[in-house]
Every structure is written in structure tokens, then in C-alpha cells.
Amino acid sequence: MSSTPKRSSSSIARLRALSHRYRLQLILALRVTISALSALALAELMHLKLPLWAVLTSLIVTQMSLGRSIKVASDYLMGTLAGVAYGGALAILIPHDSQWALFAVLALAIAPLAFIAAFKTNFNVLPITAIIVLLVPSMQHVSPMTSALDRVLEVVVGGMVGFVVSFLVFPSRAHALTTDAAADTLELIAAALTRLLEHHCGGEPADIRQINAEIATFLLRLNATGAEAEHERAARLTSGPDTGPLLRTLLRLRHDIVILGRAVGCDLPEPVQARLTPPMQKIAPAVDRFLRSSGAALRGRTHPPPLTEIEQAFAAHSAAFDAVRRDGLIRGTSSETAERFFALGFALDQMHEHLGEVHRVVGEWARE
Predict the structure, then answer these.
(1) Nearest CA among 197, 191, 203 for reference residue 282
(2) Which of 7, 66, 129, 231 is most deeply packed, by most CB within 10 A?
């Protein structure tokens, strides 16, 4: 008897965990559903000829973030207006009463617009719009001008509904998504640095190719959300800071990881290894704590952690590195070993500088 309530509570807990994990996807599904139903209701209320197109437009415009909805809506409206103008002009100026004439006009409509869309993927709607403007009049027995105006009205209705629903129903701001993506990237870079330095200090070899691929994937997502956040700033829908410095700083950290991946693991002479290993073992946990705390500060829009531990760890390594050079301990080694030794020192110096930039940009994102 008592096992049934336990199973029920366990199922409820799993559902809650799944709903929290896929919260953004569930919200998007809800917004898309509301947008489609609202567009259909408004199109029927206005007696539009093709309510289907208003519904499809609302689905296309309703995106994960408000910034992406702005970009898609503006591109879709511009593409529709251009396609309507070109397709309507062909339909009016070139008679196409016969089947062969219709084929010829359709080819003239599709070819140049498809060529343009091949260069600008956000204008994929161009040839589709021209086709509808050309073919709908013969199917519904209306003039090309009426078909063109109906097409514009349907897209305006669908786009307006999609944008309003994105704005009102659990709106997701791209700035918030950007901070989450940046925090995830900082945590990934922290883990990557720890694995690389542990490998250099005698630990298990790190899969450098996988590390670089994972960071590249995270940066692609970050760049996409950052571009959407800039659309929000341009439309004055948010007062958040410029995303450019944050994205550039994380890209520099990624370059540091790439250089480190090429430098770690070299066979250094025993005296060199003995001097550099202790300070290097202090860098990894210091950077890990700093980057993870910076990610948490980004999510909470709070001030970044202090740089005290970072400065001490890198100062100790720099002193040991200079001592190795001054004492000539790297002389007599192979050229490959010497190159990787200096590349390792350069990469850590660059990372030290870029961690200071992380501190600065996270401070810019902190709420006053």
C-alpha cells in the first residue's frame, strides 16, 4: 500500500526535474501553439484569403528568444515585400494565359530570386513569395495586385502575432541566454585547463581534439545568442551591456587553450620539471575557482571574484619560469622541446592577461 504513494512522488519528482531541464523548450512549444492559434483566429476574423500563410508566418517568427524573433520577423517581412514586388510586377507586365507562358514567367520569377537567396539565406522566402503571387490568382480567380496585397497582409498579421506572443508569453531575453551560455563556456574552459595542466604535470593524457571541439561548439552557441542580444539592444528592448567584449574575451581564452594543448606533455629535463611543476599545480585550481565563480557572477549579474589568488599563482610560475631561463636549464634540449617550453610560458602569460579581462567584463555585466 505504501509503495504506491512513493512511486507517485518519485514520478512527480522526475517530471519536475525534466520540466526544469527542458524549461526553455517547453516554453517555446507553448508560445508556438498560442501564436498559431492566435494567428488563425485573427486571420479568420479579418477574412484573409489564405489564413494558412498567416499561421505559418507566426510559427516562423516565434523563436526561442525575443532578439531572434526580431531578426526573423524583419528578414521575413523584407523578403516578402521584395518577393511580392518582383512577382507582382512579372504577373502584371507579362501575360501568361497559356501553360507555356506560365512556365516561362515562373522560371523568370524563381531563377533570379533563388540566386539571391543562395547568397543571403535569410531571404529564402523570396522565391516562395513570388511563386504564390504568380500562381494564386489562377487558383482563386483574383487579380495579381489583389494576390500581392493579400500576401503582404497575411505575413504582417502572422509576423505581428508571432512577435507579440514572443514578447508577452514567458519572454526569453537573449541577454539572459547569453550570460548562461557564457557561464557554461567559462566552466568548460576551467575544466579543460585543469585537464591540460594535470596532463603536463604527469597525469592522464587529455583528449585535446575533443576539448577544442567542445569549446568551439559552446562558442558557436554563444555567438548566436550574442547576435540576438544585439538585436534586442538595437530595438531598445533591453538595457544590457554590449556583448562584444564578453564574446571576444572568451574567444581569447579559447585560443589560450589551443596553444596550451600544443605545448603540454613535452619531456622537459628533470631540473626544469622540478621547478615548474609546483607553481603550475597551483595555477589549475586557482583558475578553476576563478572561472567558475565568474560564471556564477554572470548568471547572477553580481560582481566578479577577486584576482588575488590568480595573481599569486601566476606570479609564482613566472618567477620559476624566469629562473629556469636565467640558469640556462633549457640549453642542450631539442628544438621541439625548447619551442614547446616557450610556447607553454607564452600561453600562460596570455591566459593571465585574459583572466584580467574576464574580471573586467564580468564586472560590466554586474547589476548596479
Answers:
(1) 197
(2) 129
From residue 366, how far is each of 125, 235, 299, 363 by CA, in Å? 40, 22, 9, 5
Q: What does the alpha-carbon distance between residue 262 and residue 258 come to, in Å, rounded to a whole number?
A: 7
**Domains assigned to the chain:** 24-168 (no CATH), 174-365 (1.20.58)
Helix (H) / strand (E) containing 3: helix 3-21
Q: Is 305 left (phi over 0), alpha (psi -120 to 50) or beta?
A: beta
CB 133 within 8 A of CB 105: no
Q: What is the 3-state secondary structure (H, E, C) of 250-316?
A: HHHHHHHHHHHHHHCCCCCCHHHHHHHHHHHHHHHHHHHHHHHHHHHHHHHCCCCCCCHHHHHHHHH
User: Identity (one letter) of the amino acid at 82?
Assistant: A
- Could you report how far apart the first and last alpha carbons of the chain are, in Å? 55
* Alpha helices, H only, 46-124: 51-61, 66-93, 99-119
Give the pLDDT confidence score for residue 368 in this predicted structure.
44
Q: What is the pLDDT of residues 201-253, one digit of tens each?
A: 766 777 778 888 888 888 888 887 777 777 666 666 666 677 888 889 999 99
Q: For residue 171, which of 297, 15, 34 has the smallest C-alpha distance?
A: 34
Written as one string, the DSSP assignment of 216-255 is HHHHHHHHHHHHHHHHHHHTTS--PPPSHHHHHHHHHHHH
The residue among 325, 203, 212 whose CA lies nearest residue 260 is 212
User: What is the residue-wise DSSP string for 318-332?
Assistant: HHHHHHHHHTTTTTT
